[in-house]
Amino acid sequence: MESAYATEELTKPHIAIYYCTGCRWLLRSAWMAQELLTTFEQELGGVSLHPSQGGRFDIYVEEVKIWSREEKQGFPEIKELKSLVRDQIASEKSLGHTDRKLTDQ
After folding, report:
1. How many CA atoms lie within 13 A of 20 on its CB side?
2. Domains in the chain: how many in total?
3. Could you tell me where the beta strands, DSSP code E, fall in the chain?
4. Range of the domain at 58
5. What is the CATH number for 92?
6. What are the residues facing 50 on neighbouring strands?
7. Which end is more exposed in the chain, N or C (fewer Cβ atoms within 10 Å of the end residue's Cβ)?
8. In tens digits, what is the pLDDT along the chain, a chain of 105 residues?
């Protein structure tokens, strides 16, 4: 029988990070996953890492692509990534000093 805790986690948003194994982007992906899980520990149901090829580095919140290395011509800064995730899953959440740095630019 599934616990209420497990059911709650299934209803929270999930993030998927697709990274190129040939480019050796696993560590970058894992670091970003850690940052997101730390920042959104109450809001997220999980972050999954998906090995891929061809220089791919894409990040999805559920089915919504929020970052593509190919389209954006690079990787997101962590404060930008957190802001993009926040806008998708918890628009009212303050990111503290990250919000101040984003508005100061």
Report:
1. 11
2. 1
3. 14-20, 46-52, 57-61, 64-68
4. 4-104
5. 3.40.30.10
6. 18
7. N
8. 566 666 666 789 999 999 999 999 999 999 999 999 999 999 999 999 999 999 999 999 999 999 999 999 999 999 999 999 999 999 999 998 766 655 555
